[in-house]
Design goal:
Chain A: It is found in: Cell membrane; Endoplasmic reticulum membrane. The structure holds two protein chains of two kinds. By secondary structure, chain A is mainly α. Chain A contains eleven helices and no strands. Chain A has one domain. Helix content of chain A is 79%, strand content 0%. Classes of the chains: A mainly alpha, B alpha/beta.
């Protein structure tokens, strides 16, 4: 709508900064590490694009109509497994200790995603003449995505640990699968329910919170066990 | 290895993703609009003078300054409103009805009157017409509804604040540069002569030179625009072409020698352009057609294209009452008795030429001024009728049937006159019958120059077909047209400034919540940890809570 509105939208992205500032990352000078994590995000996305463009039938026209194509979504989400590999890459390449390592990975990833996938849309759209709630909604959704990505990073880290309780291993795998295929089951469900955009965000936030809580639960157990 | 690809690829992405993002559909509602016609005649300006709008859209009932652009339906607009908007508002966008046919007689008349008012004034503000569009209708409904709600509720300041925050505003923009005067403005005029059967004339002993025969001139004007740039119904031209076709057939087969030459003339003018075409035609120097004129028959709005009256009338307009035994009075009688066969009455209307008027009322006045006996046939009684310049058309089947009847009446009356027969004898029967398929294609004619349609039709039946142009004088033009660009109307949903401030406050609260959430996350983590602790061995290392601050 105006530059002011754009400012409002950007203000909604402040939790990213809060996370960086108040989780202690700033004290560790983890800025460069976050940038590196973002770089790996870009690399992963590019690989995904190549795979999608090479092996999958382009269905951008059908998804543009707001239809929900179940099989196309499954295909797409199966490529999203590459995201997990990306996270694994970040966790293995970027040094860090304990909690900060996970937050660095999640925050770097999420920030790169926000800048690259939302940045231009906000700059062009939110400053444009037309008012639309979509920009505020997208920014709120980015906050949900931050929680989501940090829990995904934690789950990957847990998955790679050998000292994780064997009983918890299947649970971690299930949570990872749930996260990756969220595009299918959650979007499909929301599509079937046809609820409004605000409720959609709320449902997504709830799902992210539940996954996040489970992850935190498992993580805190392991963290105490290995004493970090 | 990774680092290298990483850097290069990210640059690529930084370029590719903005490109993708620009391809995202922008949410603006875009509508086709037609700008109001702009033209000058005799130094007078008509139509809207400006073209670009970027203003707040308001309804007909809520606008009050020149910073508002009025968005309304054609049927809701009154002539009074239009006059006010024309002078004080910032712009006017009128949505046309979805189907003119479905309107009642009153609404049709209202539209025609409004249209006439628009065509006789200069609009200082940009005026646009939008074809019916369901989305635009929703927007119009919304702006109308919110204003009604706002005016009806005189509630507390809190309620008004909430109202102003939740209200949707609309911002209308129409781009486009000002219309440029077309220096090459010209009016084409086409004319041709239907020669009588030469062979037959020569066979007769009393044959006179075909070029010496008296002339009957039949003219019609072709309307090429109306209140906006579209093609109006040109039933006059259709009737004229039907006459050409019929008389050409008649001349080539009949063994009766006609005692008249028929000359047909069509020009791209009409009432709006003050019959400039006929004026130019009369000024041609060696105009052999004007040597021996029996009478001039002008066709003007022989069929009303927008009418609430299902019946058909016919009027013969003259500048002075015809004397007994003149050819015009003879023709009038023939016409009357012919029309009676179709249960149609023909009335004569006499209106003196007012030379003080800037515009002539009828085309025949151009000829009457030059002292040619002339008259106009029209379905309208008054020269002030708004139907003459309307761009709208309602029932096409009615127009077609009436056109057929009109063609038959004029053709039969003319034939009776030329061959000196009783009007009761039916010439146009059998092979000469005027049928629907003869007439229908002629409705497609849009201009003299359009695809050479008219030229081909003239050349098929007539001789000495010529097209001349009335060009606007470069220094003191009689008329001037303006180039028109295709323009689009964008209507954006906007919120008032107070809404943004309101939103900022809400976001502030949200951020505060998130901030405290993150601040107190260690506590939460502690709680979760305690849950996980199956064993009671509580390890409270000194550094543990500090480390927790990371999370």
């Amino acid at each position: 709508m105006t530059l002011y509105h754009f400012g409002n939208c950007v203000a909604l992205l402040m939790p990213y900064y809060f996370t960086y500032k108040y989780s202690g990352l700033s004290e560790y000078g983890a800025f460069w590490k976050c940038i590196q994590a973002g770089g790996i995000y870009i690399f992963t996305q590019l690989c995904k694009m190549l795979v999608l463009a090479t092996f999958f039938y382009s269905d951008t026209s059908s998804t543009g109509n707001g239809e929900f194509n179940f099989f196309a979504e499954i295909f797409r989400c199966s490529v999203d497994i590459a995201d997990l590999l990306g996270f694994a890459l970040i966790l293995s390449r970027i040094p860090g200790k304990g909690h900060s390592k996970l937050i660095t990975a999640g925050l770097g990833w999420a920030t790169a995603e926000v800048i690259l996938s939302r940045g231009i849309m906000l700059w062009v759209g939110a400053r444009g003449t037309e008012f639309s709630w979509i920009y505020i909604l997208k920014c709120l959704e980015s906050n949900v995505m931050l929680v989501q990505h940090i829990s995904t990073a934690t789950l990957i880290w847990l998955f790679t640990r050998h000292d994780l309780n064997k009983a918890l291993k299947p649970l971690v795998s299930v949570l990872l699968a749930v996260t990756v295929f969220k595009g299918v089951w959650l979007e499909g469900l929301l599509h079937i329910l046809t609820i409004g955009p605000w409720l959609t965000i709320a449902v997504k936030a709830l799902v992210a919170a539940v996954i996040g809580f489970c992850t935190l639960h498992i993580y805190s157990g392991l963290a105490q066990q290995i004493g970090i | 290895m990774l680092r290298e690809t990483d850097g290069g690829m990210s640059y690529f992405l930084l370029i590719a993703i903005p490109v993708l993002a620009f391809c995202l559909p922008v949410m603006a509602s875009e509508f086709e609009v037609m700008s109001m016609s702009k033209f000058d005649v005799n130094g007078q300006n008509f139509g809207s003078r400006q073209s670009s709008i970027s203003l707040e859209a308001r309804s007909l009932y809520s606008w009050n300054t020149s910073r508002h652009c009025v968005l309304t339906r054609l049927i809701n607009l009154s002539v009074n409103d239009f006059d006010k908007i024309r002078q004080n508002a910032g712009g006017l966008i009128i949505m046309l009805p979805s189907d003119i046919m479905k309107l009642d007689a009153e609404a049709k008349e209202h539209i025609a009157v409004l249209e006439q008012a628009m065509l006789t004034h200069t609009g200082a503000v940009p005026i646009y017409f939008a074809p019916y569009n369901i989305n635009l209708e929703k927007i119009i409904d919304e702006i109308t509804y919110t204003t009604i709600k706002a005016s009806s509720q005189n509630q507390t300041s809190v309620a008004q604040l909430i109202m102003s925050v939740s209200a949707n505003g609309y911002h209308a923009t129409v781009g486009g540069t000002n219309k440029v005067a077309n220096k090459n403005s010209k009016i084409p005029i086409i004319y041709g002569e239907l020669l009588s059967n030469q062979l037959h004339l020569k066979a007769n002993d009393n044959a006179v030179d075909a070029h010496k025969l008296p002339v009957i001139l039949i003219t019609a004007t072709l309307k090429t625009f109306g209140v906006f740039n579209d093609y109006p119904v040109n039933a006059d031209v259709t009737v004229l072409l039907a006459l050409i076709e019929m008389f050409s057939k008649l001349h080539s087969t009949t063994n009766m020698a006609p005692n008249y030459r028929l000359i047909f003339m069509i020009s791209d003018t009409g009432l709006l352009l003050n019959f400039q075409g006929s004026k130019k035609w009369l000024e041609i120097d060696d105009n052999s057609a004007l040597q021996n004129v029996e009478f001039v028959l002008c066709l003007d709005t022989i069929i009303e294209s927008l009418s609430s009256n299902p019946d058909m009338d016919m009027y013969m307009h003259v500048s002075k009452p015809p004397k007994e035994k003149t050819s015009i009075s003879h023709f009038f009688k023939l016409l009357k008795s012919t029309a009676e066969k179709y249960n149609i009455t023909v009335e004569g209307v006499h209106k003196k030429i007012n030379l003080a008027d800037s515009k002539l009322a009828w085309e025949h006045e151009r000829f009457s001024i030059k002292r040619y006996p002339s008259f106009t046939l029209s379905s309208l009684k008054s020269h002030r009728s708004p139907s003459r310049t309307t761009i709208f058309k309602d029932d096409e089947t009615r127009i077609l049937t009436h056109t057929l009847i009109a063609s038959r009446i004029v053709a039969e009356a003319l034939a009776s006159f030329m061959y000196k027969m009783e009007p009761t004898t039916s010439i146009f029967d059998g092979q000469f019958a005027i049928k629907e398929e003869n007439v229908l294609p002629y409705f497609g004619i849009k201009s003299v120059l359009h695809n050479n349609d008219l030229k081909d039709a003239f050349e098929k039946y007539l001789n000495n077909v010529k097209i001349i142009y009335d060009k606007a004088d470069s220094r003191d033009p009689d008329f001037m047209f303006y180039n028109e660009n295709d323009v689009k109307l964008n209507v954006y949903r906007v919120k008032p400034a107070i809404f943004d401030i309101f939103l900022t406050i809400l976001i502030g609260f949200y951020l505060l919540t998130v901030f405290f959430g993150i601040q107190y996350f260690p506590l939460f983590y502690d709680k979760v940890s305690r849950l996980t602790r199956d064993d009671t061995s509580v390890q409270t290392n000194g550094h543990y809570p500090e480390r927790l601050k990371f999370k």
